[in-house]
Each structure stands twice: as C-alpha cells, then as structure tokens.
Design goal:
The complex is a heterodimer of chains A (237) and B (289).
Chain A (H helix, E strand, L loop, with lengths): L5 E10 L2 E11 L4 E5 L6 H9 L6 E6 L2 E2 L5 H5 L3 E4 L11 H6 L14 H7 L1 H5 L10 H13 L5 E4 L8 H16 L3 E4 L4 H4 L5 E6 L2 E7 H4 L3 H8 L2
Chain B lengths: L2 H32 L6 H16 L6 H22 L9 H23 L15 E3 L5 E3 H23 L1 H11 L1 H6 L4 H23 L9 H16 L4 H21 L4 H15 L9
Classes of the chains: A alpha/beta (237), B mainly alpha (289).
Chain lengths: 237, 289
C-alpha cells in the first residue's frame, strides 16, 4: 500500500497534566474525505493542531507522505500540502479580503497552482463583492468562505476544516456544504469537523469518532446509519 | 519673529521630525509586531553614525555608495543580532527583555570605545551638498538639511509601500495579529520576524548615518535619541507607524519652537506635550485594536 497522505501513530498529547490524546492512530489517503466526530472536549481540535505542529505531542508520530514530521515546524508541515481552516476561522481583521487571500498564495507541493485568486473568487462570488473590505467587516459566513478560500490559495492536497459551519445561519451553512462538496470533487482530500452529522455524513467516505482522546470508531460513514444506539451514545444525536 | 526665520525653524522642525520618525518607526515595528522592548535601539542609531564615520574615511568615495553599503551592512547586522539574541526574547518577560537589551547597550558602547575611542568625531558634509541656499541678505539654509528631509521622506515612502502594498507587508501585518495562523499558512514566521527586526535596525542606522554630518559623532549619542524615540512611540500609539509619523512631527515642532519661545523651559517642553497627549489619549494618538 502506498504511503498515506497523512498518518498519526499512537499520538499522545497533553495540556499540562491533562492527557488529551491517548494513542491516536489516524490515517487519510489522497482524495479521501473523512469526518472527525465526537462531543466537545474529546480531542478533535487538539488532534488537528498536533498534526500541524501547533501543539506538540509527548509521544507518537505524525507522518506526511510517509515522512516523519512529528518535530518539524508548522510552516514546513503545511508546505507538504495542507490547507488549514481553524475553529474561529483565523481571519486577519487588519487585512482586506484581497490581502487575506494574496498573502497565503503559493504553489502546491508538486509545484501545481490551480487555485489562483481568480478561481477562488469564482468559487466564492460573495468574496468578489467584498474584495476591498477589511477582514473585520465580514459576517461569520463570509469569514468562513474567506478562510476556506485562503486555504485553497495554498493549493493544498489536504484541506482541514475545523468546525466548518459552527455559528452559521442554515442558509449560509448550506452554501458552505455546497462548496465543500465542490472542493471534494476536485480531488482534494478533506478532514471535516462539524456538529451537523446529517449534513456531514452523506459527504464523507469515512468517519472517525473520538471519545476522551481515543478512537472508538473508524469506518465507512454509511455504516453509522445502521448503528443509531452507538452514534447516540458517543455523539449525543 | 519674521517670516524667513519662521520658515527656517519650520524646515528645521520638519527635518528633525522626519529623522525622529525613522528612528521611532523601527522601534514601534519591533515592539508592535514582536512585543520586544528594545532599549538598544539608540545604539543602533549610534552604530549608523559610526558606520558613516568609518565608511566615509576612505572606504566609500561618494555619499550614495556610503549609504548603499551602510544599508546593506546594517540589514545584515540586524539580521544576525535577531538570530543570536532577540529570537530568544519572544517568550520572555519585559523585564528580561530590558535586561538583555540594556546589556547590549553596554556591549555596543564598549565596542565603540575599543574601535573608535572616546573622542567626539566629525563626518564631513559631502561636497555636493555642502552649500547653503540664501534666503535673505543675512539668512541662508544649508542644503544638507534639505537632503536629510528628502532622504527620510523617500525612506518613509518606501516603508509605507512595503507595508501596505507588498506581500511581505501583508505577511508582516498578519503576523502582528496572529502568529500561529501565519505559520499555519506555510509562512516561516521566524524568518519573517528576523526580516522585520533587520528592517528596524536598518531604519535606525540610516537615521544615524545621514544625521552624522549634522551632529557630532560621539559616545552616548544613542542614549539621547532613545528616550525621545520612546516618547514618539508612546504618543503615536505603540505599533502604529502612521502614529509615529504624526507624533514625531508633534514632538519635533514642540522641541524646535519650545526652544525658541520658552527657552527657559525647553528641556521639559517635549515631556509636557507628551503628558498632555497621554491625558487626552492614554493609548496614544493612533491607538491600535
């Protein structure tokens, strides 16, 4: 089997004395779409941050394209082809919409550069309308579009979306899901964290459920539909 | 006061304000973006002045060559300094930053003493700029002062362009807001900060370099400008380059016209202005976020 795009092996991460990740094995292949699920505080965001080197694990490994990047600096890790949309979006309020996009622009790890400013603006017509506005002037939905657009400007092989539609009005959330589907169809692998399982599950190939820092489920998303009790127990839906 | 003297004093104030701005903009960039209190900033100014002395005594023939070599050299020194010393200060307390940067002042003063001695030195005004423009039968204005103003304006314009209109400037502004997010977009934040620091060093050294022919090149010259640079940064609003420009002009005019109108209180006039501005706006004129 070829190397996974990104893989973690028995990852243990602590915040002080609190043991947040307890031996996570996680894998994503090129082009795959994975839902990362679990209640609040189960370690989803911490797992994503540990993958990116924003939080350092105490034990275990992060491999990207088979290469050990556990101790590599964050910018080197994401330059392997990762676009990151954090919880809270991380828009730069002191930059304009255009500047938020342009500052992140680079070609992908293979030197490819399909995502240009023009293509991002075609995907998000709303951003085109607000191109000269400051980041601080955007609504939550616009910020999320900008954060996704900015991640695409790095021409990623893997897009990580933490809390993709949190706090967004249903109509805006629907628009975000449409965009996520569009991005998935271009062949970019995606890891999505979201609380709206009804919208999320039809979109993904595989689901991973975290409980107290451990993986309790890793399998096809469609199989979860048949296991209502299990899902209810671990996700509270 | 007649109109010609008023013009002369105004030109003096503008020139002083522009030099102050370059000094303070480096300080405010380093503080606003990297959160480092850099007491050694005055020493950077001094290094620039001694660099002008060293380079002009035989190494570079013309002023443009001296400035070019000086700028490259100072960027390089700033880059190395950040790497060796300042990079370790980001996660530290302000007290530790003050201790290290104060220590650097002592080291730089000692190095200056070893290399150039403790005498007051002079740098000649370049011949092409040595003349004066006659204004009346008895009053004239030195060309070199106009040159300083012009050079500072060009530098300020370049700085503005860099910060507002280049990708590097966008990254710098983004980095001042959210370091982690900038990294997570694949940008080497350590290198970015090193460049900002080197730019700050270069601006201070440039001010020292072009001021050298006007003032004397002497021990302790950095300490005099350090205090006034901090005054400008505080009045302008910490981290605001635009604020530094306005504040530098306010301070320069207060200083020049204070000396003229109330000579007895000239020494405290600038600080009085600072106190008044801070009473009115405790965060400085251009408060940030």
């Amino acid at each position: 089997m070829p190397d996974a795009l990104l893989e973690t092996a028995s990852l243990h991460t602590y915040y002080g004395t609190s043991h947040v990740l307890r031996g996570i094995d996680f894998k994503i292949q090129p082009g795959e779409t994975v839902a990362l699920m679990g209640r609040n505080g189960m370690g989803k965001s911490t797992l994503l941050k540990t993958m990116l080197g924003l939080v350092r694990p105490r034990l275990g490994h992060v491999r990207i394209w088979g290469k050990d990047m556990t101790r590599a600096s964050t910018h080197k890790i994401v330059r392997q082809g990762i676009g990151y949309v954090p919880e809270g979006r991380g828009i730069f309020p002191n930059l304009s919409v255009r500047e938020n996009l342009v500052m992140a622009s680079r070609s992908g790890p293979d030197g490819g550069g399909h995502w240009t400013l023009q293509r991002v603006l075609e995907t998000f017509p709303r951003l085109q309308e607000r191109i000269g506005n400051g980041g601080w002037q955007l609504s939550g939905g616009e910020q999320q579009m900008l954060a996704i657009g900015r991640a695409l400007m790095t021409n990623p092989e893997l897009l990580i979306l933490d809390e993709a539609t949190e706090g967004l009005a249903p109509a805006i959330a629907k628009e975000i899901w449409r965009i996520v589907r569009e991005i998935r169809d271009t062949g970019i692998a995606t890891i999505i964290v979201d609380k709206n399982f009804a919208a999320l599950l039809p979109l993904v190939d595989r689901s991973v459920i975290l409980v107290k820092g451990e993986v309790v489920y890793d399998g096809p998303a469609k199989d979860l539909n048949a296991q209502r009790d299990f899902v209810h127990q671990h996700l509270g839906v | 006061m007649d109109i010609v003297s008023l013009l002369i004093q105004t030109l003096n104030a503008v020139q002083y304000g522009l030099v102050l701005f370059l000094l303070a903009s480096g300080l405010t960039l380093i503080f606003g973006i990297m959160r480092i209190i850099n007491l050694a900033h005055g020493s950077f100014y001094m290094i620039g002045a001694y660099m002008a002395f060293g380079l002009s005594s035989g190494i570079t023939e013309t002023l443009p060559a001296m400035i070019a070599v000086g700028l490259i050299l100072s960027f390089f020194i700033g880059f190395i300094l950040e790497w060796v010393f300042y990079a370790f200060l980001y996660q530290r307390e302000h007290l530790e930053q003050v201790l290290l940067t104060y220590g650097l002042i002592l080291v730089f003063e000692e190095l200056r003493s070893i290399l150039f001695g403790n005498d007051v030195l002079g740098v000649a005004v370049p011949e092409a700029l040595a003349g004066s423009i006659p204004l009346t039968a008895t009053l004239s204005y030195p060309v070199y002062r106009i040159f300083i103003s012009a050079a500072c304006l060009i530098m300020a314009g370049l700085l503005y362009y860099l910060i507002r209109h280049t990708r590097l400037g966008m990254m710098i502004r983004a980095g001042s807001h959210d370091r982690n997010m900038v990294q997570a977009l694949g940008i080497n934040i350590d290198l970015l900060f090193r460049i900002v620091f080197a730019l700050g060093f270069m601006l201070a050294a440039f001010s020292g370099m072009i001021s050298a022919p006007m003032t004397s090149v002497s021990p302790g010259m950095g300490n005099q400008v350090l205090i006034i640079s901090f005054v400008v940064v505080v009045i302008g609003g910490i981290g605001s380059v635009g604020g530094a420009m306005v504040a530098a002009m306010v301070i320069a005019f207060a200083d020049v016209f204070g000396k003229l109108l109330v000579p007895a209180y000239a020494g405290m006039f600038v600080y009085l202005v600072m106190a008044l501005v801070l009473l009115w706006r405790p965060e400085g004129i251009f408060r940030k976020g």
